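yo, carnosine N-methyltransferase is done. seq:
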Amino acid sequence: MSENFHCVMGAHIEPGEEITAAAISAAKHELSDDADLVKEMGDMSIGHDHSHDHGDEEGSFCEESSLGNMEKDEQDSMLSTLGSFYLYRRRAHSHLTHRRRVAFCNMPLYQQSILHGEGIEFVYKTLNGLDIAIESNAEIAEKIFHHSIETFGIDTLALAEKEWLDSVTTEDHDKVRSTLKQFYRDWSAEGAAERAVCYTPVMEELERRFGSLAAKDKAKVQVLVPGAGLGRLAFDIAVAGYSAQGNENSYHQLMASNYILNYTTKKEQHTLYPFINSFSNHRTRENQMRGVKIPDVHPSTPLADAAHGDRFSMAAGDFVDSYSGTETAGAFNVVATVFFIDTAVNIFSYLETIWKCLCDGGVWINYGPLLWHWENREADLKLAGEDAQGMELTADEVVKVAEALGFKLEHREKGQKGEYIGAGEDSMLKWVYEGEFWVMTKVPKVTKYTR
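structure:
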């Protein structure tokens, strides 16, 4: 049996030293609740991070926004997103390590001694290691924060008031964690296997249809990627020589993609720890603590040609609102949807918008499951102002609806099985999808004239 060891919120208490009720109480006091975390400012100064020069207009791939041009609800949403990246460091330390140090202090001494023993070393090895991993993730979150201030036109004077953090919600904090984790899937070498399952079929279909075109003609092929997330598929399409526009409605995803695409300075610039936020279903502690390098490629390098030809952009906004109008009617040769159509409140709206923004004979390429995001979430729909919920259809039914709306099915197959941000071989829980892959073309509607 190893010597007794105790730790109060990171303060080392020597073996044999008594842990008093006062010490434990002090440790608990240090653990702020959610409201305190939101209201308190950290030590990080607010301002622009000048570690990397802002690219010229031609080289930036995110359409800039300005708070002055937004509705108040949209301003609040952007500021709460910004605040959640800002608060990541403090909240992660509190919820992942500080809370467990308090719990450790409340355990019987013999249990503490066992957890301190060789092969476990829960405080020294696990919690201290997690603190280091949090710092690495926080570096990424704070880079996103700083560069979003400039790109999205945030008034820095507004950030001088602490009240702007009051709107940050638990959901915002959850989205920061999931967004950071998604870097594993889209921008690490380890995520290549997941990308191959869902992105490769899209790239192969593009190559089959347009690969033989000369470079100047290939560049004229306009591809829209709704639900672009962190921008990897749209990036791959642009690098392959096509013109690609990613569309994304989540400010968390937009701010993160803006940083990775426009501001990273080299390949493998950051070490990301994607799995530290959950302690469940790990066979080994190493599985939880493993890091990956991001980005696996330096985006600006292969995108130089795309930037020169204005062939790549990321656009903010709701898909239906942004692409169902006359200004985008018939504007795209291809719409590529990956893990996207099940986010629809009403699938008819998505299908009609895809049909409308495609040119005659244009191609819709789809891969993904049907995990209907709004199923059994009527209260959330009302909060979001959505009152036209559709039906949760099967894949067969979606295809039939699409055909009824003016699409012709050219190819359909069961996709390969693949994980979505899997936790590795030493995870005891795996979410495996077997998505549907199909290719459809837009059939022009025939106008009937009567005499």
